[in-house]
Amino acid sequence: LPGQFSLPSGDKIPSIGLGVWRSAPNDVGEAVKVALKAGYRHIDDAWIYGNEREVGNAIKESSVPRKDIWITSKLWNTFHKPEHVEWAVDDTLSKLGTSYLDLYLIHWPVAFNEDQEVDWELTENPYPTWQKMEEMVEKGKIRNIGVSNFNIRRLQNLTANNLKIKPAINQVELNYWYPQPELLQWSKDHGILLEAYSPLGSAERVKETLQIPEVKHIAEKLDISPAQVYISWHIQRGTIVLPKSVTPARIEENFKVSRLPLNLFEQLENAASAHKPARGSDPSKHWGVDIFE
Ligand code: A2P
Q1: Mind listing the pLDDT tens digit for each residue in 160-183?
Q2: Catalytic: which of 40, 49, 197, 230?
Q3: 191 Rama sector, left if φ>0, alpha if ψ -120 to 50, beta otherwise
Q4: What angle separates helix 52-62 from helix 82-96, to the nearest 10 degrees?
Q5: How many Å apart are CA 229 and CA 176, to the nearest integer?
Q6: Are 277 and 171 in contact (CB under 8 A)?
Q7: How far apart are CA 104 and CA 89, in angstroms?
């Protein structure tokens, strides 16, 4: 399986990244260190996770050189106004203790105003925010820019502008319950790489996800774990995969992947596409924006 995917900038992004959403304080630094020791070279963070300082410290203490690690962070909804973007970037850089990010994403297609309410204008037209993201690349603070939780319509809406830099990446929920084959195909056709968050179904559903009969069958056949089946499946679909764990044995397990034989890959792809798609928990529901419309 490919250890990396190439981006339009020429940069190569490691195909497995450690997810750190909802990793509790004190756990997350240790998880990052275990991951770097196990061979991970990609950490997926965000300003809103509130753990950038601890993640940055763990990276430093690992003594793996900064240039060998891919660091992603994300612009929170309250900072979409063009005059706020650079402040948000600088705050993330200072907390992570680094002079640049490998990747910076618009975290949600939802802009908030000062009162934490939806700014509908900037939500429907994120181009002013995007232009600032482009400027951050020109200034050397960020190497690649992208989006997260964008559907096809929102990406078409953004890329209809005369962009200097196109979104390289869209990070979205992708798992057995919500495999999004249409978005995957559209993204491939348009040169946008997808990143899979909640690749094991997230904490609420992981147990059930690992017990799907098709997956257990494949795991037994190949003598690997169900989690390894899923992580391999994601990479084989052509996406980056961001498994979250704070458990050392699982962090190590999730990094050991191998290509699934084509017939077994297709069995899993078919099983995932056969049931009614069901998203995991989604904060945007509470914001009053239907991000899928
Ligand atoms: P923990 O962090 O306690 O190890 P997702 O990546 O889909 O968001 O799923 C994250 C959830 O899956 C977490 O609850 C995590 O638990 C659990 N998890 C991660 N890797 C494995 C694994 N290899 N086997 C079982 N559970 C796992």
Answers
A1: 999 999 999 999 999 999 999 999
A2: 49
A3: left
A4: 40
A5: 11
A6: no
A7: 9
107: annotated binding-site residue?
yes
- For residue 253, the ligand 1 atom closest to its alpha carbon is 23
For the CA of 19, the nearest atom of ligand 1: 6
Q: Judge whether 100 counts as a catalytic residue.
A: no
How confident is the model over 98-110, as pLDDT tens digits?
Answer: 999 999 999 999 9
CA of 64 relative to ligand 1 center, distance in Å:
25
Indicate if ligand 1 lies below 6 Å from the C-beta of 14: no
Nearest CA to ligand 1 atom 21: 250
The residues that bridge with 70 in the sheet, in sequence order, are 42
pTM above threshold 0.95: yes
**From CA 252, how far away is CA 37, in angstroms rounded?**
9
Q: Is the CB of 209 under 6 A from ligand 1?
A: no
CATH architecture for residues 11-203+239-255: Alpha-Beta Barrel (3.20)
What the block records as the tokens of 152 is 């096809």
Distance CA 244, CA 251 (A): 8
6 forms bridges with which residues in the sheet?
Answer: 12
